[in-house]
Amino acid sequence: MNKSEVIEELAQRHNLSIEDAATIVSSFFNSIREVLCEGRRVEIRGFGSFKPKDYKGYTGRNPKTGVLVSVPPKRLSVFRAGKELRELVNE
User: Fold this and answer.
1) Which residues contact 46 (CB under 8 A, 6 or more apart)?
2) What average pLDDT does this structure show over 6-15?
3) Which residues, other chains included, contact 90 with Cβ-Cβ below 8 Å and sequence gap of 6+?
4) Which helix (H) or strand (E) holds 24?
5) Quick check: is 37 in a domain?
6) Per the domain annotation, does 19 fall within a domain?
7) What is the CATH number of the domain that holds 75?
8) Cα 47 from Cα 83, distance rounded (Å)
9) Is residue 91 part of a domain?
10) Residue 74: inside a domain, yes or no?
C-alpha cells in the first residue's frame, strides 16, 4: 500500500474528500518526519515506534573496483513493530 492508497482508503472509510484525506495523511507524515529530524522518538501505541539512529563513519570498499572509500557518518530512522502489530502479523 502506498501513500495515495492510504489517502483513498481514509477518504472512503470516513466519507471525506480526497483533498481532505490527503491533507490529514500529509500532516501525519510531516509530523513524524519533523520529530525524527529533531532527533526524537515517535511511538504509536499498538503499532510501533520510529527512532533516529546514528551510524559512525567507516572505510568501505567499492565492490566493483575494490577501491577503498570513506563512508561519512549518517542518521537513519529505524522502525520497530509493537507487540500488538507483531502478534497480528504472525497470526
Assistant:
1) 82, 84, 85
2) 97
3) none
4) helix 18-37
5) yes
6) yes
7) 4.10.520.10
8) 8
9) no
10) yes
User: What distance separates the 2 farthest-apart alpha carbons in the chain?
Assistant: 57
The sign one gets for the Cα dihedral 90, 32, 4, 10 is: positive
Residue indicated by cell numbers 510501533:
48
> Is residue 76 within 8 Å of 53, Cβ to Cβ?
yes
Check: CB of residue 53 under 8 Å from CB of residue 40. Answer: no
pTM score over 0.85 = no
**Residue 83: pLDDT band with limits 50, 70, 90:** very high
3-class DSSP state for residue 76? Answer: strand
Model confidence pLDDT, tens digit, residues 22-52: 999 999 999 999 999 999 999 999 999 999 9
What are the E-state strand segments in 2-91? 42-44, 48-55, 58-61, 68-71, 74-81
Burial of 82 (0-12, 13-18, 19+ CB in 10 A): middle
> By residue range, what is the domain housing residue 54?
3-81
How many structural domains is the chain composed of? 1
Secondary structure (3-state) at 66:
coil
